[in-house]
Amino acid sequence: MIDAVWDAVRVRSEFVSILVVVAFASLGAWAWSRNDEQRRTGLDSLIVSSALVAVIAGRLAWVLVESPRLIRLPLDLVQIQSGIDMPVAILAFVGMALWRGHRDRDPLTFASVALPAGLAIYAALCLFRGDCYGATGPAPLAVPFPQFHENRLPIALYEAVGLGVLAAVLANNTSLRPRSRLFAALASTALIEYATEWGRVASLSRFTDGWRLGWLVLALVGLALVVVAEYGGRSQKRPGTPARRRKWSF
Fold first, then answer.
1. Rounded CA gap, 242 and 225, in Å?
2. Model pTM?
């Protein structure tokens, strides 16, 4: 009986991983605003809405590109057993966070930390899913895996460490505006994913259809958004002249 339940959970490991990430995000929101009930309500709403939109968008993107036949199988479409398009999910999360936090800084600040932290937790759950391994490599960077004869890079664990460090840096950064910090999180996350993609096997790519260059494009877009958000709306004031009105900014 226990073995049957465990096998059923392992089959739906993607779905379970998502639930764990949402649970940790909720715990983080509680810790972030434990002394402010109104702020906590806003962050809880951000987590639910952004995570839901991100999962739906990422799942639909993966299905449309990798397995369109699932469109005719609603139950298989809902039961996340196969894959989620991570770049689309990330963009959906960022977009939803911007929409929910356009009047309040706290949701944007929290979302900028939650993005890499959530992905770090998801990557670390490879120990549960059994997909930590990547391409072959030299020791000690590569380690033995029981299902392979040669040493392989534990690339998902490297990914988790990189994203975890990024989350810690963003949590302690106060020099960027809230939106700039969110865009910086997007750019930095995409850059870490681009770097780790080179250590993955093709079938475990985090980018739909294995187009790894897309992470680099996403990183450059995020960096451009940081520049626009930080400097686009700042007025150029000369001595003795009134400040110009802001014309555009994120």
1. 27
2. 0.76
